Amino acid sequence: MQYALLNGCKAEAVRGAQGICMCCGQKVIAKCGSINIKHWAHAVADRCDSWWENETIWHREWKAEFPVNFREVNFFDEKLLEFHRADIHTAAGITIELQNSAISLTELQAREAFYPKLIWLVNGLKFKGFKILKSIPDPHHPALDDFEFCLSEHLSMIRKIDALTQNPNPAILNFYHQDLKSVPVSTAFYAFSWRHPHQAWMQVSCPVFIDFGGHFLYRLRKRYQISGHYSYLQLVSKRSFLAKYAIG
User: Fold this and answer.
1) Same domain, 147 and 184
2) Chain mean pLDDT for the chain
3) For residues 52 and 40, what is the distance between their CA atoms, to the nearest angstrom?
4) 85 in helix, strand or coil?
5) pTM to 2 decimals?
6) Are residues 157 and 177 in the same domain?
7) DSSP-assigned states of every residue in 25-67
């Protein structure tokens, strides 16, 4: 963890120092070696927060975008008698969890149930077999109300009536078809393929923003359809994300 109480104040690790965990109140020791980023570790091996994961430079760089009082905010679950440490908790009551490693569906759902206003910010560079494909029309464009996206890497659609009637051989329409060619493609929305998807992220309930590096994030979106829900990405600039959530 990045912060502990040192002489009664929230502080980062300093070589040779001992502090108090702001979550569970136990003694912690500063770790300031040359390999890992400097951090505080419990003197006695005790994971006071069961949702803890090793912190990386990626975590620290994102935390640095937020005011210090938003970082590592602690909570206590009175039902399960557990401590939890939110990576970011804003003045508006929004919790942002920075997720670098894989997560089980059980833990994901537990966190979503615990934090009333949760946003996931995920390191997409860890995803295997993930590929951003071509830009697509706005999936909620009114001209597409009578159509459903096909669940394939190729941008195509079927008529909703075929989904309603469970037509076994629906006509597959591309965007050169006369009924679709007038629908504009948007640079804000993208199709994607994921050869080895993490099932937890495909069943998430709270907003998910994926960070692949650079100046943009990709919000994982879903269009609810009779023939099967269609997942896609919405491009969001990091600047607009921080302008919305990092205001002190």
Assistant:
1) yes
2) 92
3) 13
4) strand
5) 0.90
6) yes
7) --EEEEE--SSSPPEEEESS---SSTT-----HHHHHHHTTS-
